[in-house]
Design goal:
Low-confidence stretches: none
Largest sheet: 8 strands, parallel, barrel
CATH superfamily of one domain: Luciferase-like domain
Number of strands: 14
CATH architecture of one domain: Alpha-Beta Barrel
CATH class of one domain: Alpha Beta
Distance between the termini: 15 Å
Order of helices and strands: EHHEHEEHEHHEEEEEHEHEHHHHEHEH
Helix content: 40-55%
Structural class: alpha/beta
Strand order of the largest sheet: 1-2-3-5-10-11-12-14
Length: 387
């Protein structure tokens, strides 16, 4: 049963033009003063969502994006601030990109945020997808296998630090602690000081490829999965695959349990008006994400066309209606969205969490309007509540 609604806000600033006829993604560059408006926008969204009864706002860690798309470099610092200016809403790390951190610094920073916010921060980890970010911080991204190997070892260290009074670790990338003399003895173990006080720590990870290795790793460590919102389509494959991985580990999950589904949405009085108004935001999303491999089914020629101003028609770049058929995007009146979500609820009886997200580039005023409309006319159809 769906009971918890959230949104994913990756930190885009307001853009002066949007869509396929607007400035190409790689030509966007904004002054620092405009990029810094991301923090006021984040606070405004969080305050409105808090007052409307949303469960969480998920923020994304990204770096160096002068294009204005994803401009929040430290979501744990942002989460502490948001918890001080809102009374209730939880703040999700969607996601801390583990290869860009030392795992113990990430564990310490989350523990600090957990204590200062009284447990309102939701932990989340990811492998990353921007070479400009991950490789700049000295971790592999082009080598996917090396990236996964590093990520898995780092997550094991973080969770060990959270859950054990004292710990040690010997792996390919880390020996913790190093065997060094310290104050009259040889160092053999470490204690994270302080550890999170709200344990066990709820941890989430995006499901992208849904490979058996990746899903088995998640289930083994009790990590829940986020499907959609730019990471995957709403195809049933990953949903069934996660439950099958749980079964391999001896856990019997209802379909959709321990998962969160993400849907991009836009409400209007009619389906036609909603499609018309969401189209430039959808096209901005494609301009940003298609070259990174996050627009399912798009061809290399269509990716190249999406990077050019006005080249979409000849290349047949898919419209938003195409992805509405997969369930990853919705545009229409509130009553149709209620029916869409009720259908998901019936198909996935274990599903509790849904991220209702707003497309890349959407102005702050439109985001606030859409989140308010959804809260007033869609959320009441569901039994929501509880943090």
């Amino acid at each position: 049963m769906i009971t918890k609604f959230a949104t994913v806000y990756p930190g885009h600033v307001d853009l002066p033009d949007m869509g396929q006829m607007a400035t190409p993604a790689n030509e966007r560059r904004f002054p620092n003063e405009h990029l810094a408006t991301v923090f006021a926008k984040t606070e405004a969204v969080a305050r409105v969502m808090d007052g409307l009864g949303y469960h969480a706002i998920w923020l994304a860690e990204h770096h160096f994006q002068h294009e204005g798309y994803e401009c929040l470099p430290n979501i744990l610092m942002a989460a502490v601030h948001l918890a001080h200016v809102t009374p209730r809403i939880r703040i999700g790390c969607g996601f801390n990109i583990t290869p860009m951190w030392h795992p113990l610094r990430l564990a310490e920073d989350f523990a600090t945020a957990d204590i200062l916010t009284r447990g309102r921060v939701i932990f989340g980890v990811g492998r990353g997808y921007h070479t400009r970010e991950v490789e700049t911080f000295g971790a592999p991204m082009l080598d996917a296998e090396a990236n996964r190997e590093l990520f898995e070892e780092q997550v094991e260290i973080v969770l060990k630090a959270f859950n054990e009074e004292s710990f040690s670790h010997q792996g390919k990338h880390y020996t913790l602690p190093p065997a060094v003399p310290y104050r009259g003895y040889e160092l053999r173990e470490l204690t994270l000081v302080p550890r999170p006080t709200h344990r066990p720590v709820e941890c989430w990870q995006p499901i992208v490829s849904a490979s058996p290795r990746g899903l088995d790793f998640m289930v083994r460590h009790g990590i829940k999965g986020v499907i959609g919102g730019g990471a995957a389509t709403m195809a049933e494959g990953p949903i069934h695959a996660y439950r099958e991985a749980a079964a391999r580990a001896g856990r019997n999950l209802a379909l959709g349990q321990d998962l969160c589904l993400g849907i991009f949405f836009y409400l209007a009085e009619t389906r036609e008006k909603a499609i018309r108004e969401i189209t430039p935001f959808y096209e901005e999303h494609v301009k940003m994400f298609a070259p990174l491999g996050f627009v399912p089914g798009i061809t290399p020629a269509q990716v190249a066309a999406a990077a050019r101003r006005g080249g979409w028609g000849a290349a047949g770049v898919p419209s938003v209606e195409h992805y509405m058929k997969t369930g990853a995007w919705f545009a229409g009146p509130p009553e149709e969205l209620v029916a869409h979500l009720k259908d998901l609820e019936s198909r996935y009886p274990g599903l509790q969490h849904v991220n209702m997200s707003i497309s890349m580039g959407t102005p702050k005023a439109v985001m606030l309007e859409q989140l308010g409309w959804f809260a007033r006319e869609v959320m009441p159809a569901f039994k929501t509540g509880g943090q």
